[in-house]
Amino acid sequence: MAGFVLCVGNGTSRSAARLFASSSKSGRGTLNLAFYSERSSSRVFSQVGAGLYCRATGVRFASRLAGRQTADAFFRNKTLVAAGAAVVAGVMAGFCHFQKAEMASRVIKDVEGEREILDKCKGFMSAPVTDVEILQQRKGDMSTRMEMLIMETQAAFCRALEEVDGAKFKVDRWQRKEGGGGISCVLQDGTVFEKAGVNVSVVYGNLTEEAAKQMRSRGKVLKGKDGKLPFRAMGVSSVIHPHNPHIPTVHFNYRYFEIEEEDGSKQWWFGGGTDLTPVYIDQDDAVHFHGTLKEACDKHKAQYYPDFKKWCDRYFYVRHRGETRGIGGIFFDDLDQPTLEEAFSFVRSCTQTVVPCYLPIVRRHLKDSFSAAQKDWQQVRRGR
């Protein structure tokens, strides 16, 4: 056996291509080319039969360097063989560098994704319910993306209310023994708001049989394993009670639910909505509120706003009193189409309306005067 080593460099790294000839029992010579990297002692390329194989990419390269004549040529003309080896090694190095570039690109994207989560967490009212390291590991999962969205929504709404009121929210974290927990943000006895609550919850565990029956009654086909249905649910919700009777009360809630079935597949759906309850109806407020919601819905599907507005009107109709709770808004549940990504995009658009649909109305009525009788009527309406 004889061998020859050719070293090549690109300024930042150096690789070696080792050529060696061997004879089989039949006496035919085979020329093998192995590629080594300074950063790894493992062999990346080797010849199988008459073909060159890259273990890193699974690509086989054609080689006509096998056979006695090739081996003889190697010994007769080392210069020629070295030149040929340099060409092949260069090609292989190119493929390896291309693959390394792809891997580096993926690593950069992963790092950027993890950094993005960390950067977003800095603006939240509290650290997320789920450990940040777990969120980074599962940054592509819908449960992670939804948790980040509801945390962003909570922070954006709280900051906007703090700015207009001047008071600060008190933050309280709670844990659920069965799994998960939540973050409650409460502003009380402020300048503008008597009480404002903006809450996030992220819970998980096994679905109770009662809950499973309720979901099956709504048309869900659930297949558990050993009688268990692992679930994960999360959402953001808010109720705002202003001092001034001319500033309406607003409610919103957006949530996500997923269940893992016995085969590992997941069932998922979204729900939620936003509605406005004024004590004294202002036409401009109503136009602004509904117009903002309609604009968000229309970005995704023209039928969303009329359908979800009707759903909200029905949902918040007080039958025994024959009256509506307020001027409505939008409401939906069990949204599991057209795709997970499109449904999430729609919900994200909805959460992004909670500040622009409400804060301009608050600012418009900040200095409105009101009587004791109007304040009393506000309390009656609030109690109902």
TrEMBL record:
Q: Catalyzes what?
A: coproporphyrinogen III + O2 + 2 H(+) = protoporphyrinogen IX + 2 CO2 + 2 H2O
One GO term under biological process is: protoporphyrinogen IX biosynthetic process
One GO MF term attached to the UniProt entry: coproporphyrinogen oxidase activity
Instruction: Report the superkingdom from the record.
Output: Eukaryota
InterPro entries cross-referenced by the UniProt entry: Coprogen_oxidase_aer, Coprogen_oxidase_aer_sf, Coprogen_oxidase_CS
Q: Which UniProt keywords apply?
A: Heme biosynthesis, Oxidoreductase, Porphyrin biosynthesis
GO cellular component terms, semicolon-separated: cytoplasm
Could you tell me which pathway this protein works in?
Porphyrin-containing compound metabolism; protoporphyrin-IX biosynthesis; protoporphyrinogen-IX from coproporphyrinogen-III (O2 route): step 1/1
Q: Which Gene3D superfamilies match?
A: Coproporphyrinogen III oxidase, aerobic
PROSITE patterns with a match to the protein in the record: COPROGEN_OXIDASE (PS01021)
The catalytic activity of this protein is classed by the Enzyme Commission as 1.3.3.3
Q: Name one Pfam family in it.
A: Coprogen_oxidas
Which family does this protein fall into? Belongs to the aerobic coproporphyrinogen-III oxidase family.
Q: What does the annotation say about its assembly with partners?
A: Homodimer.
Which protein, by its recorded name, is this? Oxygen-dependent coproporphyrinogen-III oxidase, mitochondrial
Name the source organism: Conger conger
